[in-house]
Fold Type 1 glutamine amidotransferase.
Amino acid sequence: MDDEPPGLFGRFLAEQGVELDVVMLHRGEAIPSLAPYDFLLVMGGAMDVWETDAHPWLTPEIAAIREWTLNRNRPYMGVCLGLQLLAVALGGEVGLARAAEVGFGKVELNALGHAHPLTRGLPSAFRIMQWHHAEVTKLPEGAEVLASSAVSPVQIMSVGREIMATQFHGELTPALIDRWAQIPQYLEWLDQAMGPGAYGRVRAQARLQLPKCERVSRTMFGNLVASRRLVRAAA
């Protein structure tokens, strides 16, 4: 989606001097050869993984994720839809969640998350932005759950030490949340999920929560790329 940019993760890549290539599949842009790249970042979107008739570009995207993770085994990070696409690409399943999860909610590490190198240094529990109505319902082979929420069991999923994805939105910045005020569809979706005036409440919470969220995201991202020298990344 045009309004789902890399956000903080794009900033973290830039800080390392990484050249970021952004591919907008919904605009008809083709997935390039993955051979030159060191890192793949897959962001969120309002569509569901099974809506391939309405969004036919989902099919080649899933195939590219499968190639990247299974065949090339290179670092991957997915956010929200990027988590769900990873799960499907590796043989898992995604379906409607028992309840939508929207707003700043609590995520808690499990025992594996406390010990895993990808989540090393994270607090045991933290509040972070959620915005989804679908979730991973069956883990792919080899995947591990590192954190959950009261609504969704799979909030952080890893495959080995270089492939991870989050159901929550760790990429958000104050500027991105300010931008939502100019997008009527986003305001409508928030009101549907949280009641009238939802945007104002979320924005007020963001002022308090986003500095803490950035620390969480920076820690996770740093853990993921610590063992790699990145040069080029695709998002």
